[in-house]
Amino acid sequence: MNCPKCSGDLETVSYKDIEFERCDLCQGLWFDLLEKEDLLKIEGAESIDIGDEQVGKQYQEIRSIDCPKCHQRMVPMIDKDQFHIKYEACQNCYGTFFDAGEFRDLKEST
């Protein structure tokens, strides 16, 4: 799969037996259904978000993207508790994409 933001390769990564994808260029994170929720429950999971927060902020401005899995238009979302966290969700396969630094920020509940 290719990254919906920069077209880099989404490489499969595993953390505590949960597999997800990370872009090899912009370091954005792709989560299939419930992977994000499972990782949010695991202490230390913020370490999977290795990307530069400043790069993530640049890509955060790109909100009109297609799902890398099913190629449907994704919906721009805002976290219900932390309004500064913006990500994209697919209404078809329920995957989510987080720019570099967003998952780490979500996990830390700032």
Relevant terms:
110 residues, alpha+beta, six-stranded antiparallel β-sheet, 3 helices
Can you lay out the helices and strands and say which pair or pack?
Blueprint lengths: L9 E6 L2 E6 L5 E3 L3 H6 L12 H8 L14 E4 L7 E4 L6 E3 L3 H7 L2
What is the chains' assembly state? single chain
> Percent of residues in helical segments?
10-25%
Q: What radius of gyration results from the CA coordinates?
A: 12 Å
- Neighbour order of strands in the largest sheet: 1-2-3-6-5-4
- Kindly, what is the distance between the CA atoms of the first and last residues, rounded to a whole number of angstroms? 31 Å
The biggest beta sheet is recorded as: 6 strands, antiparallel
Report the sheet-strand fraction: 15-25%
Number of helices, where a helix is a run of at least 4 consecutive DSSP H or I residues: 3
Mean pLDDT across all residues, rounded?
95
Poorly predicted regions are none
